[in-house]
């Protein structure tokens, strides 16, 4: 990309941060579970003082606060803001910064780079003797990916995360999304491992996608320096110094804590006093007694100027994830985020970045008595424009995980990230499968089209490390009072969202399936295979036998067809490729004790049979049960899940469906049927004679027959199966044709003139 030489050279001029004085020696410390959420044992400090990876100084007995210049310097050399300044100086004025267009998002260009993604999760991959990143960069794995049709790997967050307390490191509180450094976490490998992964991917025609988190950091060196009031560092965060005369308004902080969450009453008092803007539009991860507001207060902290301060700071997510301030006069937060992005793209060799938590970058006081404006704020759009523009300027692309309204996704997509995660249709297709009825799915697809969100701009995914999100923000917030047709009546958006959530909870959890667990108010902890098992009446993990695998696999392939046989990126994880089931709750009881049930669906897995006898990953996640077997096993079988996925993806690529345009979601003859009509125009709307493609799916476990009718169809054209070449029927003068579908079956259909006999030699035309 032309960036790595400059950035590496500048970094080499700086001493290794972990060898700067004072020397830090490894030692174990304990910490209170109340402070650090449950996580696998190997990712958190043990109580044995002599075997920990926690780092503390014995050679320098001086205090770990602002009174010690060596401690302050040690923090500075670990800070992301300092790294960003070095990277910026190294890249400024270089010709590589001017070689690429950057003003406008380009989803189709991004898809041309990476159309099918494998989404990895660091702590769950069984890697044998290799590091996580080295395992992802293994040639044999990429040979398998090539056979399947996977063209990119999203690594997940792999840089150092968590926090610093004194001289000691503390564990991540949110799966490494609380980043504190530009360095790779040694638990996952090294910077060189990442660069090697990028090179191997390139050799196989693939690419690597990394992460940045523009919404928050962890409580690392940058936050500790901010607490000290040191130079520009307070400007990184939404943090407000509370004068000592008003400390009586603040709750006390226990000795073993560095901050406590504000309750609603204190939040209101501080807002009334003019210190903070108070209540936000919602409290993400709300938990009584733990997180009741989006604000926390620090204990007294000695500053670099000798003054002791207490700060109230904003965190949209967990207390250990202080939010970044994108409109502070120092622009320190912006500098930090841009520096992190350039490091990933220029120095590590990634081709793209996920923008995590990027919908919450602006917050503003609202009218008296109303929550602050914190979602869909124009500052978020402006910040995303800057980030995405910088990424494109150096030749990369970006995608966002923006679980907001369709209007927000549309508007940010006009100037910001090239692609957006499909939070719109994922709960809808799960609902269609659970209810054997596609009515809500058809509604979401149509609403997306009418709002101006084309599927080509979305990342259509199966399972990832998070829960099945069913917040249905579009209907539950902005459109809560709008009426929508559903089940033969007009219902308000808020009621529609409530009904869908209730359906999913009833059909997928509790008595229906005790292995799928509700996760706070956000969604359901499950795997794709366990969702399917629940819809097929399997109420316990023990009830799922080898005799059920074929039916589960067929429904799983149906969901692959839905996501892959429409324009946009298709993404799947190892949990999908291997058909993983959730872990029994008893195996992760400590991890889910505080309510984070997502750990049940993050079971360890072995993609390549590198360690068949392993019972857990290197990070300590218990091994889950695979229904389909490893990739080497599957790729030797003609009817395996992975082999059939490769067939689905092959036709998608051959006809250019991934960069097409969606035209119509017509009514259907059977409630379990779904029809999507696409134009294979590569995004060129002037191609009036571009061929059409029709995806027809059966979301039921029964054979169905029905008529496909759309105003987009051309009468008197023969319709054939793009996969098999088999003739399906002929479009009549009413612009319709009839299909039969086996249980959980799907068809990818194209058309040709009726006098063309051989589809392999004919020119495709509009259906």
Largest sheet: 8 strands, parallel, barrel
Residue stretches low in confidence (pLDDT < 50, at least 5 long) are 1-39, 41-59, 759-765
Which band does the percent of strand residues land in?
Answer: 15-25%
Q: Which structural class fits the helix and strand makeup?
A: alpha/beta
Overall shape: it is globular
The count of strands amounts to 32
User: What's the arrangement of strands in the largest beta sheet?
Assistant: 3-4-9-15-16-17-18-24
Distance between the termini: 42 Å
Q: Rg to the nearest angstrom?
A: 26 Å
Instruction: Summarize model confidence as the mean pLDDT.
Output: 90
Helix residue percentage? 25-40%
Total separate domains: 4
Total of DSSP H or I helical runs spanning 4+ residues: 21
Enzyme class: isomerase
Keywords: Isomerase, Transferase
GO molecular function, one term: transferase activity
Protein name: Maltose alpha-D-glucosyltransferase
Q: What's the topology here?
A:
Elements: H1 4-12, E1 25-26, E2 55-56, H2 69-78, H3 80-91, H4 107-113, E3 116-119, H5 132-136, H6 139-148, E4 152-154, E5 159-161, E6 163-165, E7 168-170, E8 179-184, H7 191-203, E9 207-212, H8 221-227, E10 239-242, E11 259-261, H9 264-272, E12 295-298, E13 301-302, E14 308-314, H10 332-347, E15 352-355, H11 378-393, E16 397-400, H12 406-415, E17 419-421, H13 426-435, H14 439-451, E18 458-461, E19 468-469, H15 473-476, E20 483-486, E21 489-492, H16 493-508, E22 517-519, E23 523-525, H17 528-535, H18 549-564, E24 569-573, H19 574-577, H20 631-634, H21 641-654, E25 661-664, E26 673-679, E27 692-698, E28 704-709, E29 717-721, E30 727-730, E31 736-741, E32 746-753
Parallel strand pairs: 3-4, 3-24, 4-9, 9-15, 15-16, 16-17, 17-18, 18-24
Antiparallel strand pairs: 1-2, 5-8, 6-7, 10-14, 11-12, 12-14, 13-14, 19-23, 20-21, 22-23, 25-26, 26-27, 27-32, 28-31, 29-30, 29-32
């Amino acid at each position: 990309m032309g960036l790595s030489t400059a950035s590496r050279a500048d970094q080499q001029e700086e001493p290794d941060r972990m060898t700067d004085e004072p020397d830090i020696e490894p030692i174990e410390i304990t910490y209170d579970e109340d402070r650090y959420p449950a996580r696998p044992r190997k990712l958190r400090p043990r109580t044995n003082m002599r075997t920990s990876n926690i780092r503390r100084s014995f050679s320098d007995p001086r205090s770990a606060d602002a009174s010690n210049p060596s401690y302050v310097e040690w923090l500075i050399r670990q800070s992301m803001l300092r790294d960003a300044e070095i990277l910026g100086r190294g890249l400024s004025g270089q010709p590589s910064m001017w070689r690429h267009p950057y003003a406008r998002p380009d989803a189709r260009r991004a898809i041309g780079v990476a159309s099918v993604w494998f989404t990895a999760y660091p702590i769950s991959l069984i890697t044998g003797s290799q590091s996580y990143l080295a395992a992802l960069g293994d040639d044999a794995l990429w040979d398998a990916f090539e056979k399947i049709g996977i063209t990119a790997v999203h690594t997940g967050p792999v840089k150092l995360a968590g926090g610093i307390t004194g001289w000691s490191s503390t564990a991540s509180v949110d799966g490494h999304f609380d980043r504190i450094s530009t360095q790779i976490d040694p638990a996952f490998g090294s910077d060189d491992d990442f660069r090697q992964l990028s090179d191997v991917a390139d050799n196989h025609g693939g690419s690597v996608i990394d992460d940045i988190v523009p919404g928050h950091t962890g409580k690392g060196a940058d936050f500790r320096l901010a607490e000290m009031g040191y130079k520009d560092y307070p400007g990184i965060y939404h943090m407000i110094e509370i004068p000592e005369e008003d400390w009586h308004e603040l709750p006390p902080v226990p000795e073993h804590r560095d901050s406590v969450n504000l309750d609603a009453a204190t939040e209101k008092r501080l807002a009334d006093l003019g210190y903070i803007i108070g209540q936000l539009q919602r409290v993400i991860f709300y938990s009584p007694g733990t997180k009741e507001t989006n604000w926390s207060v620090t204990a007294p902290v000695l500053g670099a100027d000798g003054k002791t301060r207490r700060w109230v700071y904003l965190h949209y997510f967990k207390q250990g994830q202080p939010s970044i301030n994108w409109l502070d006069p120092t622009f320190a937060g912006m500098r930090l985020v841009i520096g992190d992005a350039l490091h990933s793209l220029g120095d590590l060799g990634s081709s793209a970045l996920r923008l995590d938590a990027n919908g919450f970058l602006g917050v503003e006081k609202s009218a008296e008595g109303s929550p602050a404006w914190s979602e869909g704020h124009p500052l978020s759009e402006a910040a995303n424009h800057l980030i995405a523009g910088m990424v494109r300027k150096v030749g990369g692309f970006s995608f966002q995980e923006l679980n907001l309204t369709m209007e927000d996704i549309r508007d940010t997509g006009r100037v910001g990230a090239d692609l957006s995660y499909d939070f719109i249709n994922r709960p809808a297709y799960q609902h269609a499968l659970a209810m054997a009825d596609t009515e809500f799915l058809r509604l979401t697809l149509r609403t997306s089209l009418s709002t101006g969100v084309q599927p080509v701009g979305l990342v259509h995914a199966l399972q990832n490390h998070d829960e099945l999100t069913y917040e249905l923000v579009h209907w539950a917030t902005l459109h809560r009072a709008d009426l929508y047709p559903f089940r033969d009546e007009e219902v308000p958006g808020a009621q529609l969202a409530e009904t869908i959530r209730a359906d999913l909870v009833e059909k997928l959890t509790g008595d229906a399936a005790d292995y799928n667990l509700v996760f706070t108010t956000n969604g359901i902890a499950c795997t794709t295979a366990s969702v399917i098992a629940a819809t097929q009446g399997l109420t316990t993990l023990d009830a799922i036998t080898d005799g059920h695998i074929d039916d589960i696999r067929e429904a799983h392939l149906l969901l692959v067809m839905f996501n892959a046989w429409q324009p946009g990126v298709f993404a799947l994880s190892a949990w999908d490729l291997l058909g993983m089931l959730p872990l029994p709750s008893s195996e992760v009881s400590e991890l889910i004790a505080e309510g984070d049930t997502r750990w049940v669906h993050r079971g360890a897995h072995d993609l390549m049979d590198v360690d068949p006898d392993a019972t857990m990953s290197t990070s300590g996640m218990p091994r889950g049960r695979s229904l389909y077997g490893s990739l080497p096993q599957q790729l030797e079988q003609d009817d395996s899940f992975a082999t059939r996925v490769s067939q689905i993806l092959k036709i998608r690529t051959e006809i250019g469906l991934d960069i097409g345009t969606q035209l119509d979601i017509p009514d259907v003859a059977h409630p379990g049927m779904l029809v999507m009509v696409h134009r294979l125009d590569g995004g060129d709307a002037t191609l009036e004679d571009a061929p059409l493609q029709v995806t027809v799916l059966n979301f039921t476990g029964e054979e169905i027959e029905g008529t496909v009718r759309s105003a987009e169809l051309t009468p008197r054209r023969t319709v054939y199966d793009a996969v098999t070449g088999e003739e399906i029927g002929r479009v009549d003068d009413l612009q319709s044709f009839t299909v039969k579908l086996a249980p959980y079956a799907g068809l990818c259909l194209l058309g040709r003139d009726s006098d063309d006999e051989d589809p392999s030699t004919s020119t495709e035309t509009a259906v």
